[in-house]
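Lecture notes, unit on protein representations.

Consider one protein chain, 439 amino acids long.
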Amino acid sequence: MKRTTRRRFIASGAAVGAITIAGCADEDPEPEPEETPEDDETPTETEEEEADVFEAGYEIWAADQGTDTVYIYEPADDSGEEYDLLDEIDTGAEGGHVPHMADYSSDYEYVAIPCTTGARTLIYRAEDRELVANLETGAGSHFAGFGPNDEYIHVDVIGESEIVRVDVDLENEEFEIVDEIEVLEDETVQEAGIESGSPICHSYDKSGRSIHTMGPAYDDGSLVIVDHEEFEVDTAFPHEELPTNCGTMPHVTEDTFYLTAGNPTPTDDDGNVIEEQEDEAVGEYYVLDTENDEVIHNESTRGVDAHGFWFTPDGEELWVLNRETNDGVVVDPDTHEVVDEIDAFGPATAPDPDERDAPDIFWGSPDGEYMFVTLRGPEPQSGDPHAATGVNPGFAVIDTDTHDIVTTVQPDPDNDESDLHGIGVRPTREYDGFNLPPF
């Protein structure tokens, strides 16, 4: 099996050759017909139609944790408005209840789907959707990410407060749980003063260390960094220094790393906002210098409950969303500062959170045209209900130039249990850009 271990994929510049069509000669006298090389023959109507056939170029995998279903779509045309459903995967049939996230191997041939209630991580061969591993990684398996060179997978397991390591041999399709870190029992974590929380999400820095946010509550937010060779905690930051409890994203080229911190607006038992505590709502992102392990920047996300984020494939913009307020910002990765705002990711924008869409995770199209953003359902399976309760379960398609919502795809619109969370985009041809961390 030929594989690449780089996360950067190079475009094949498909050039279209010019076609010359000869005109008619005088009819009288009729000239002798010239022999025409086969390569110069005028294309037939059928050949021209075939040349105009739209090639999708990528698949969108969207996990509905409310119905234990992974939906696989592709663009139907180049408008960004129509999408064809290619396949569905019933993760529940394999014990994979509440499929939460998706992450690919560097060649996009395999996808890891952790299932929180199912207490396991499912590995599929992406091309034919075949299950190749069913790993009991633990209760609350929240995110499973392939490491650099695809030699292992680290799994953030909330219910056990563990980071689980899976050794990977893609050549032979072998996956084995080999170790785990009990995070709160770790000496480095304890010395940092971290006494609560569980690993939530992670990605990898340029040296291969996995960087894990802790949570899920904002008060549990902190950061733990794991050395990949020794598989032990290398560094830990307490809540007072880095109250990060959600997203993780490495810079595409530099030794810097982005993290989000979010806290929904406090509510009482009936779901009503506690007005005197409204200032406790949080939406922030932090920038960590991973060469020196120093925080070099933090800024507001201009909304509440900062959550997922993603780079445009050219590496020039980092998008950050706020789950509760259904809005977000664009960050310049050169200055790490906010340079633009995004008004809405979901079409429901009412002032009342119960009547407003709740965006969660996103992933960009490899051609850089769109961002695909999951929208939560009216009966969310995870997250604070005040922030995570949505209206239109599905995923929104956002134009990266205008920031407008192009369309919303809803696989199961009339089912209140539908609750999309994780999403991943898998190229089926070559592109130029950065679209799968670690870069």
